[in-house]
């Protein structure tokens, strides 16, 4: 069942019913100011940091009620309705929501009065614009009222939700003309505030929530809206809001447009104390400058055009044309769009991540680089240095850090032993894309301490050596608190029945080992060797190469279980992910990474491993993480077995690592199977089961309930997931086979044998490559010939053109 359709020309997903299975959202913002908006107008806004600089409130665990949002109530006689249906839930005569690239348009019609709300964050400004157009489609005049409504957050979202004894006495506002100023904390900090304004004279306002809603009132029918008259309330302490009242008259066929702006304002340092230092009156000058930029429809329309042009340019760097409409749709639009959103947000702010706990992830952000580095390499460079600055001197790292402060999250801490290797992966991806080795010379702190800094190359050395020097009893890398699977906690024990687990102290171990990290070490160790060679670090390259070769042998000797790769050894040296286990016999992660690392490729282990994945882990909705699921809680395994069978890490379909298997299939040359794995979780290919899948049909989710779950096929945790980067990497670099490398652009497709080929345009190091892939023999993999600008060449590595802006490449498979 569908709840809308793709509009590829406009790059939109058009939702045709407000009653989607879950709120289907979009992200507004590309730089510092961000808003989340659902198809019914729900969502929230923040500046740079969703925890520390939150402008508006959102109430989590309320799905699908989706409260709060930036709402507009329309009252005509006794009828009260909203353009996006929520929160009044008055049935609409017409409804559509168009989620596009950095904007959303919500259209609603009731009683021949049509509304169109366009929401976006303009380039270069810290605000959200809501352009609301009302049109009288009847043959009689209409008189009605509009009431805007936002609920301000008291900046620190966590404190806002918990510290009521203080916060219920801090709310402050000012109202000047059509602008409502949310100045809570200004008296204390005097450097920032929020403004909510409309470009029209108003017939009233409210800034106090109790006055607006009424005692025991609800968002669905605020007392002010029901009565049709604002109270001009001024919040003092308690809960500040922003609401404007506009009385509107429209002749038949007439339209009127209003521009509402929600902005974040920061005074320059020298202006902090402008105003009355004793009574906390704000300096309105910077807000007035901001509002003046968008005080006419013409200015707003130009800002909207500029935003669209930004996305046109951004998405032009990699495009394809094939016989597969859904493939083109995902590669050209939605894959890359989600990669950009995930770059901006990491895992911090969604409808599943509250923006309070996680911040930016060390591992997460490094993986995200793989999907967006070709779009904005300069910001990728900046992100790599930010990530590296949270690393410790021994090569380990904070697992997460706050985007505003760049400080490591001490609540989460470190000890996730895969983290260091991801820095090598991200840096290598950047260098392959740009050829910019100068990033390795950048002086970068440890633990965000400027007094402790070395060049980035030294950070990479310490990353590699951290793994090399933390080896367990079998010669495999120690897992620490966990590896990629944060819920697989193998250094755990319980002293008494019923007690929660504890971790081993340093004197007791821990000794648990990870075959997954071993695969990473081999795969990304190869990149480390190449970078060392380029830097002239001959001895370090030799040392690293020997460590990689030794690790490959160790995996084959102690990490192979006969039909697949083991997952790990626990602290007591028991096997995890083995045929000897009752539950959890086979895991997906090592099958993907060990094959991507080509461990055992010549010996036939890789193909056998992938055949086991297909035999034991395959389902119609994707590949599950493990089988069989854990049916009881295992204290020695930690969190993984705390989930019911079929959910999350306990045999759920983790979309994040399905691409590892698809990439692995291209390593062994099975294009049909790689394609099958790709399409089973690809949003455009599963749009028809939206009533089962439930999350947005235009972006990836982190998890789909596995075959052992009652709700098999139901997705959760949409938008902010490493799935976006890994799947784009899979489809662009391994299935389509257009892969940047240190010395040029590799063309090595591995496609289903039913495809005749495809065309692609790829910008690479200042040159545009027009690539035509032909598959006349309908093979899955293999190159028969490569022609560059009409000349037959021997290699499928296309060197970077030194004196050309465009290059034409034709590849014939065979």
From TrEMBL:
GO BP term (any one): carbohydrate metabolic process
Source organism, top-level taxon: Bacteria
Record-linked InterPro entries: 6-hairpin_glycosidase_sf (IPR008928), 6hp_glycosidase-like_sf (IPR012341), Gal_mutarotase_sf_dom (IPR011013), GH65_N (IPR037018), GH94_catalytic (IPR033432), GH94_Enzymes (IPR052047), GH94N_CBP (IPR037825), Glyco_hydrolase_94_b-supersand (IPR010383)
Matches recorded under SMART domains: CBM_X (SM01068)
Domain spans labelled Glycosyl hydrolase 94 catalytic: 310-737
Gene3D superfamilies, alphabetized: 1.50.10.10, Glycoside hydrolase, family 65, N-terminal domain (2.70.98.40), Maltose phosphorylase, domain 3 (2.60.420.10), mpn423 like domain (1.20.890.20)
The Glycosyl hydrolase 94 supersandwich domain, residue ranges: 11-268
CDD domains (UniProt xref): GH94N_CBP_like
Name of a matching Pfam family: Glyco_hydro_94
GO MF annotations in UniProt: carbohydrate binding; glycosyltransferase activity
PANTHER family: CELLOBIONIC ACID PHOSPHORYLASE, CELLOBIONIC ACID PHOSPHORYLASE-RELATED
Protein name, as recorded: Glycosyl transferase
Species, as recorded: Candidatus Galacturonatibacter soehngenii
Phylogenetic classification of the source organism: Bacteria, Bacillati, Bacillota, Clostridia, Lachnospirales
């Amino acid at each position: 069942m569908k709840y809308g359709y793709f509009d590829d020309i406009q790059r939109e997903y058009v939702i045709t019913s407000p009653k989607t299975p879950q709120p289907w959202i979009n992200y507004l913002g590309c730089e510092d100011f961000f808003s989340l908006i659902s198809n019914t107008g729900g969502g929230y806004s923040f500046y740079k940091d969703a925890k520390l600089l939150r402008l508006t409130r959102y109430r989590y665990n309320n799905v699908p009620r989706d409260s709060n949002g930036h709402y507009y109530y329309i009252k005509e006689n006794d009828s009260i309705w909203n353009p996006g249906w929520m929160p009044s839930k008055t049935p609409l005569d017409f409804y559509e929501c168009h989620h596009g690239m950095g904007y959303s348009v919500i259209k609603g019609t009731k009683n021949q009065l049509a509304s169109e709300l366009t929401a976006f964050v303009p380039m270069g400004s810290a605000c959200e614009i809501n352009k609301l157009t009302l049109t009288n489609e009847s043959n009689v005049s209409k008189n009605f009222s509009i009431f805007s409504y936002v609920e301000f957050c008291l900046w620190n979202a966590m404190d806002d939700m918990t510290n009521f004894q203080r916060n219920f006495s801090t709310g402050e506002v000012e109202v000047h003309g059509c602008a409502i100023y949310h100045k809570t904390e200004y008296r204390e900090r005097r450097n920032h505030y929020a403004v909510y304004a409309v470009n029209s004279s108003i017939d009233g306002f409210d800034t106090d929530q109790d006055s607006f809603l009424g005692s025991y009132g609800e968002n669905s029918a605020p007392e002010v809206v029901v009565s049709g008259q604002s109270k001009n309330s001024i919040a003092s302490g308690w809960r500040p809001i922003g609401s404007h009242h506009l009385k509107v008259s429209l002749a038949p066929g007439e339209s009127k447009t209003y521009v509402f702006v929600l902005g974040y304002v920061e005074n320059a340092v020298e202006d902090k104390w402008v105003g009355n230092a004793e009574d906390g009156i704000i300096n309105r000058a910077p807000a007035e400058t901001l509002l003046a930029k968008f005080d006419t429809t013409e200015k707003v329309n130009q800002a909207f055009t500029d935003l669209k042009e930004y996305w046109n340019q951004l998405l032009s760097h990699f495009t394809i044309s094939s016989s597969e409409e859904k493939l083109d749709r995902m590669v050209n639009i939605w894959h890359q769009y989600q990669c950009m959103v995930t770059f901006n947000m990491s895992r911090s702010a969604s409808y599943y991540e509250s923006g309070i706990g996680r911040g930016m992830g060390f591992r997460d952000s490094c993986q995200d680089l793989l999907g967006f580095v070709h779009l904005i390499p300069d910001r990728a460079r900046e992100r790599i240095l930010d990530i590296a600055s949270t690393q410790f001197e021994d090569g380990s790292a904070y697992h997460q850090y706050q985007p505003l402060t760049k400080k490591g999250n001490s609540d989460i801490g470190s000890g996730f032993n895969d983290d260091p290797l991801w820095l090598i992966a991200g840096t290598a991806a950047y260098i392959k894309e740009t050829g910019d080795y100068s990033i390795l010379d950048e002086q970068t702190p440890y633990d965000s301490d400027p007094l402790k800094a070395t060049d980035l190359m030294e950070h990479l050395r310490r990353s590699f050596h951290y793994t090399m020097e933390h080896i367990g009893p079998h010669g495999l890398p120690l897992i620490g608190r966990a590896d990629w699977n944060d819920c697989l906690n193998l250094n755990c024990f319980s002293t008494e029945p019923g007690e929660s687990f504890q971790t081993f102290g340093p004197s007791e171990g821990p000794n648990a080992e990870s075959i997954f990290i071993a695969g990473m070490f081999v795969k990304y160790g190869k990149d480390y060797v190449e970078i060392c060679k380029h830097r002239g670090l001959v001895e370090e390259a030799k040392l690293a190469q020997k460590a990689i070769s030794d690790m490959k042998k160790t995996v084959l000797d102690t990490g192979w279980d006969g039909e697949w790769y083991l997952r790990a050894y626990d602290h007591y040296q028991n096997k995890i992910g083995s045929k000897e286990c009752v539950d959890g016999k086979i895991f997906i992660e090592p099958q993907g990474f060990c094959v991507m690392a080509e461990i055992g490729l010549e010996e036939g282990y890789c193909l056998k491993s992938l055949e086991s994945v297909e035999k034991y882990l395959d389902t119609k909705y994707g590949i599950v993480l493990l089988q069989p699921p854990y049916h009881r809680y295992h204290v020695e395994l930690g969190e993984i077995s705390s989930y019911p069978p079929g959910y999350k890490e306990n045999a759920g379909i983790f979309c994040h690592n399905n691409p590892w298997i698809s990439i692995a299939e291209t390593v062994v040359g099975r294009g049909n199977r790689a394609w099958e794995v790709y399409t089973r979780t690809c949003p455009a290919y599963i749009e028809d089961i939206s009533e089962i899948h439930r999350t947005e049909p235009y972006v990836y989710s982190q998890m789909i309930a596995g075959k052992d779950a009652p709700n098999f096929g139901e997705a959760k945790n949409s938008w902010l997931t490493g799935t976006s980067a890994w799947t784009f990497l899979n489809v662009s670099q391994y299935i389509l086979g257009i892969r940047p490398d240190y010395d040029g652009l590799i063309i090595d497709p591995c496609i289903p044998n039913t495809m005749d080929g495809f065309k692609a345009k790829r910008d690479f190091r200042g040159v545009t490559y027009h690539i035509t892939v032909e598959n006349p023999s309908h093979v899955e993999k293999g190159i028969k010939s490569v022609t560059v600008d009409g000349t037959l060449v021997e290699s499928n590595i296309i060197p970077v053109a030194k004196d050309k802006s465009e290059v034409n490449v034709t590849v014939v498979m065979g």
